[in-house]
Amino acid sequence: MEPIPENHPVLKRARQFAELIQESEEIKRFRAAEQQVQNSETVQKRIDVIRHKQKEWVVARHYQKTEYARLLEKELDQLNHELESLPIVREYQQSQVDINDLLQIIQQVIASTVSQKISVVTGGKMDHKCGNCGHRGCSC
């Protein structure tokens, strides 16, 4: 199978569509939330503390300091909970979920539209062959 050329019309349209997605409200909200998180001294300090505790936890596990590692795990759980409960972080996480939802819907629409068109082109009959051996109805 030959590689698809960079100037293929479908790829050109895909790039245009990607630019359109970049201009969506979901992406704009995500970028704004991301910028707030990056510029927040409170958030960044908490992230630094979490990273430090994670490194301590790795060392404790390496030297089999089981009790200390458990204590650090509890501290890390608490620190992560505190970080995730900050409104600015919740907004950032929600914006990630919104983008993921948008992309999943887009993927579903494309897949559904393409499969409907293929089904029509092939007369409505799908050829269900095994991807491994090529036999019909096989489940190897």
Please provide a brief summary of the model.
The chain is mainly alpha-helical and 140 residues long. It has five helices and no strands. The chain has a single domain (9-116), classed as Up-down Bundle (YheA-like fold), CATH 1.20.1500.
Describe the protein.
InterPro entries: Bact_com_dev_regulator, Biofilm_formation_YmcA, Com_YlbF, YheA/YmcA-like_dom_sf. This is YlbF family regulator. By secondary structure, the protein is mainly α. The chain has helices at 9-22, 25-39, 41-62, 66-84, 87-121. The chain is elongated.
Secondary structure layout:
Elements: H1 9-22, H2 25-39, H3 41-62, H4 66-84, H5 87-121
Helix content range of the residues, please?
Answer: over 70%
Number of strands: 0
Give the biggest beta sheet: none
Gap from first CA to last CA = 25 Å
- Cα shape: elongated
Given this structure, which CATH class is correct? Answer: Mainly Alpha
The secondary structure category is mainly alpha
Do you know the CATH topology?
YheA-like fold
User: What's the CATH H-level homologous superfamily?
Assistant: YheA/YmcA-like
Give me the number of helical elements: 5
The proportion of strand residues reads under 5%
- Strand-and-helix sequence, N→C? HHHHH
The assigned CATH architecture is Up-down Bundle
Whole-number average pLDDT? 89
Global Rg: 24 Å
Q: What's the domain count?
A: 1
| Low-confidence parts | none
